[in-house]
């Protein structure tokens, strides 16, 4: 007998605190936990093309195609998980009521802490953090043009090649980053858990309000 979809063995991991867009979608009943665990797409983002992971990590498995604009927050998934890419207006239509993505209050320059729950650990290269530009438009889906051109933080294990250090390249349960010091108001943060031995990263998104 086939296992039900909710016990899908391919799930991998998600942030449990603070609440990501995926967590909000779970609370709204529009996504299941396994779906948020599987928001994986090409790890070379914000690059557009599949191909080798940049030096000095080019011995890692090459990236598959990174997510297209408008589908970034779901890791490129365009099924039910596309809802995490929705604007407030799109989600309001889906829910048939007024909706705004809830905001996490933060301070510029603060340490932002996340806790992950992994259901299928991978050999981990590291983590990449991106954020929306000043003046971005919340009425538009997140695109590369809406994001700062460069990540505001990266946390990579230096060991290469990955297959000689697999025991050391472990996913981090508790992970933190210093937020940019020059942001104000509403922004979206994109966090990528980048895997060394596949072509993918797992995408998580957070709506924040810089006080």
Automatic annotation (TrEMBL):
Pfam families: LPMO_10. CDD domains: LPMO_AA10 (cd21177). Residues 12-208 form the Chitin-binding type-4 domain. This is Lytic polysaccharide monooxygenase. Keywords: Monooxygenase, Oxidoreductase, Signal. It comes from Pseudomonas xantholysinigenes. InterPro entries: Cellulose/chitin-bd_N (IPR004302), GlcNAc_Chitin_IntDeg (IPR051024), Ig_E-set (IPR014756). It comes from the Bacteria. The keyword Cell wall biogenesis/degradation does not apply. GO terms for molecular function: monooxygenase activity. The keyword Transcription does not apply. Transmembrane segments: none annotated.
């Amino acid at each position: 007998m086939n296992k039900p979809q909710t016990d899908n063995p391919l799930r991998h991991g998600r942030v449990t605190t603070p609440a990501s867009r995926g967590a909000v979608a779970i609370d709204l009943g529009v996504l299941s936990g396994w779906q948020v665990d599987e928001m994986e797409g090409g790890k070379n983002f914000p690059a557009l093309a599949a191909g080798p992971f940049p030096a000095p990590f080019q011995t890692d498995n090459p990236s598959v195609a990174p997510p297209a604009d408008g589908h970034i927050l779901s890791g490129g998934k365009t099924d039910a998980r596309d809802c995490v890419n929705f604007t407030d207006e799109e989600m309001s239509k889906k829910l048939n009521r007024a909706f705004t993505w809830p905001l996490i209050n933060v301070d510029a320059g603060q340490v932002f802490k996340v806790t992950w729950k992994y259901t299928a650990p991978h050999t981990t290269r590291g983590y990449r953090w991106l954020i929306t530009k000043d003046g971005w438009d919340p009425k538009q889906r997140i695109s590369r043009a809406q994001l700062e051109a460069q990540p505001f933080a990266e946390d990579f294990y230096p060991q290469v090649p990955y297959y000689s250090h697999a025991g050391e390249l472990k996913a981090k349960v508790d992970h933190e980053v210093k937020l940019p010091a020059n942001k104000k108001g509403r922004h979206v943060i994109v966090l990528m858990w980048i895997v060394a031995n596949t072509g993918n990263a797992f995408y998580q998104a957070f709506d924040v309000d810089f006080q």
